[in-house]
Amino acid sequence: MTATSDRCCCGLLHIKHGTITIGACSLLSTLINGLLFWFDINRMSHHFCIEFCLVLIDVFSVISLFYGILHMRPNFLKPYVYFTLAWCVALVLLFILSLVELINGGQLSVNIAISVAEIFNLAQFGNILRNSSELLTIFSLIGLLLSIALNIWFLCVIFEYYQWLTIQTTKLHFNNHSLAPRL
Fold first, then answer.
1. What letter would DSSP give residue 182?
2. Which PANTHER family is this protein grouped with (predicted)?
3. 168 in the Ramachandran plot: left (φ > 0), alpha (ψ -120 to 50) or beta?
4. Which residues are paired to 8 by β-bridges?
5. Distance, CA of 91 to CA of 145 (rounded, Å)
6. DSSP for residue 1
7. How many domains in the chain?
8. Which residues, at least 6 apart from 161, have a Cβ–Cβ distance to it below 8 Å?
9. Statement: residue 150 has pLDDT above 50
């Protein structure tokens, strides 16, 4: 039986299995983001390089996470932790700026309404969406808050696994050296 410190997800999973689950969710998210990037971005814009670099860093961090899990190498979890931490900071800044824009009555609400109309090809409902643009913005901000909370939770679980794995590898390293014959 494992100790309670070895458990995550309200005690439902061993910390390693929780980390694998988070890695699988992150891999799926990365693949979806990669596909959306591939089919959606104008390759001539300056945003292409930024988006491309973010997708590559995300892919690298998820691959590094899985390598660290499978080979019990805690330092290979660090790229995922750092990228997720930076991503959480960026999302929090985006939330704050969007909230300020919403409160000041800027164009953010109208831009979100236009984007929703374009995504779902609702040109005929454009006026209705513009009238309810503040509501759409609030729903977008709630979704952003949920994304921030989920990323922070992922970060906490991965960091707990990093600490657990560091202790386990230290014990293993210590046991191997203490059992070795002395010459």
1. P
2. MARVEL DOMAIN-CONTAINING PROTEIN (PTHR34851:SF3), PROTEIN CBG05235-RELATED (PTHR34851)
3. alpha
4. 13
5. 8
6. -
7. 1
8. 8, 15, 16, 18, 19, 69, 77
9. yes
Structure confidence at residue 77 (pLDDT): 95
Q: Mean pLDDT over all residues of the chain? A: 79
Give the predicted TM-score (pTM) of the model.
Answer: 0.75
Range of the domain at 131: 4-179
pLDDT tens digits for range 29-55: 999 888 877 776 555 566 778 888 888
Comparing 98 with 127, which gets the higher pLDDT? 98
- CA dist 20 and 9 (Å) reads 12
Q: With a cut of 50, say whether residue 84 has pLDDT above it.
A: yes
Give dist(CA 183, CA 164) in Å, integer.
33
* 148 pLDDT higher than 90: yes
Helices (H), the chain: 15-40, 47-70, 78-104, 108-119, 126-131, 133-179
Question: C-alpha dihedral over 24, 27, 31, 34, to 10 degrees?
Answer: 160
For tokens 């991965």, the residue is: 158
Assign 45 to helix, strand or coil.
Answer: coil
Closest CA to 98 of 133, 150, 138, 130: 138
